[in-house]
């Protein structure tokens, strides 16, 4: 692990000069945004039957492309494994990484990347076949556990089993579909990843209802997009695009009513939408209607959530801690003012 981090750090150092050149200008010149996504995680970043990418992480990139290029379809999606995602970002292969990635101290300080915020608050869970007869993760002594390599899940599960005085055998595979296949074939007793990931990957199994997610949440997994360090302008564009989507939900601004809300008497709404003399885009190298373009392209954060992972989707994920702070959740964006 240490040698891997050193390699990534070296790549980040080489890429620092590229970041300083100005990613915003590069994206505009290219006419497209290069967005790093997963290898296929339903609800978050997954190609549909026609090859079009959909999901919560994908919609963030569509909002960012709308902000920068005025076109939410001007994107090249780059499918990346957990192992390769940080190298792809640091090397300049992609402009932004939006791929169910946990914000940690090591990743934020050692790899030459910067997280712009949290788009989904999650935690690691464990899934087992219902026929195993297990109702708690504390009953898994001696289990064989499948997960992805290059993720936080390996350390988390090791900590959990050590804490509870249990032993286990780890099977770590690079491709997420390989992990699902290994678990589905009975090669391992347990599949562990973020709880949202379990809900998504469960859909790929032959009989999803034959598998249960155990009640324990064994870690904190704040997931969010990231960019290369060293380019402050691009970092702020990426950060405030996410913030605008979160704030838009708080104030009831939707894809359908964004134009109408331009006439709102609420000063906070006017600032978000760039109404009147309000212009918070200029300092980032954007036009004053930058947030309007993001919201009209994808809807606000709540619309993105409900469309991709909410209770009426196959994932059936309630808002929980991802509810707005005004409704008892953790979703809270600094004010645009």
Provide the descriptors you would attach to this structure in a database record.
globular; five-stranded mixed sheet; 13 helices; three-stranded parallel sheet; disordered N terminus; alpha/beta; 337 residues; single chain
Describe the structure.
- This protein has a five-stranded mixed beta sheet with strand order 10-9-11-8-12, sandwiched between helices. A three-stranded parallel beta sheet has the order 4-1-5.
- It has 13 helices and 14 strands.
- Strand 9, helix 6 and strand 10 (168-173) form a beta-alpha-beta unit.
- The protein is of the alpha/beta class and 337 residues long.
- 38% of the residues lie in helices and 16% in strands.
- Helix 1 packs parallel to helix 4 (85-91), helix 3 (56-69) packs across helix 9 and helix 9 crosses helix 12 (290-298).
- The protein has helices spanning 2-20, 23-30, 56-69, 85-91, 105-110, 153-163, 176-184, 195-202, 232-250, 258-261, 267-273, 290-298, 301-308, and strands at 33-37, 46-47, 53-54, 75-79, 96-97, 113-115, 120-122, 124-129, 143-148, 168-173, 190-194, 211-213, 221-223, 226-228.
- Mean pLDDT is 93; it is low at 1-20.
Compile the SSE list and pairings:
Layout: H1 2-20, H2 23-30, E1 33-37, E2 46-47, E3 53-54, H3 56-69, E4 75-79, H4 85-91, E5 96-97, H5 105-110, E6 113-115, E7 120-122, E8 124-129, E9 143-148, H6 153-163, E10 168-173, H7 176-184, E11 190-194, H8 195-202, E12 211-213, E13 221-223, E14 226-228, H9 232-250, H10 258-261, H11 267-273, H12 290-298, H13 301-308
Parallel strand pairs: 1-4, 1-5, 9-10, 9-11
Antiparallel strand pairs: 2-3, 6-14, 7-13, 8-11, 8-12
